[in-house]
């Protein structure tokens, strides 16, 4: 794709995948601006805009406050998997093009591999682990009931993408669901069952 053909929000056909491609650059730009605020929250003196080395920040993850130590370059995906032992989000693609690391940030599906942790202080971070437990979310149950996985590597990202999309579009049609999930890729090709699982959630009203 050439520069002249790159689409932006509002352009016909602009998709969530287009957005995810661009979000990494945006995160990098905002991280430097937000670092000073993060330092203030932790009671540290606000430093210069460009910071090297580690700093401690507090993130709101699945309703809990979590202190983590990060460098300015540390991604949310690295924090989740290596410091918080939340390994649902997967490092399939570092540019977010697979949707494997999809989490919700303030209710919006975003790729954790393209987000810098220091830019997320004060944001509500929700991972796939929040949809499990003794009373799993309707999307999780539907994936099981419709056999919507093979190797399962893409599944957490799809579950979060379906949950986020149906939260916004609870009466979505099959065509709308297909469009809403076009930022996620399944190498095993279980798309048909994933779509059926999402439709079942719509029909179940959950
Ligand atoms: S179930 Fe294997 S990549 Fe989707």
Describe the structure.
The protein is of the alpha+beta class and 206 residues long. It has two domains: 3-127, Beta-grasp domain (Ubiquitin-like (UB roll), Roll); 132-204, DNA polymerase, domain 1 (Orthogonal Bundle), CATH 1.10.150.120. The chain is 37% helix and 12% strand. A hairpin with a 2-residue loop joins strand 1 (55-61) and strand 2. Helix 3 packs across helix 6 (191-204). The longest helix is centred in the first third of the chain and has 26 residues, at 16-41. The termini are far apart. The structure holds FE2/S2 (inorganic) cluster. FE2/S2 (inorganic) cluster binds next to loops.
Defining key terms:
single chain; 206 residues; alpha+beta; Ubiquitin-like (UB roll); DNA polymerase, domain 1; elongated; disordered N terminus; binds FE2/S2 (inorganic) cluster
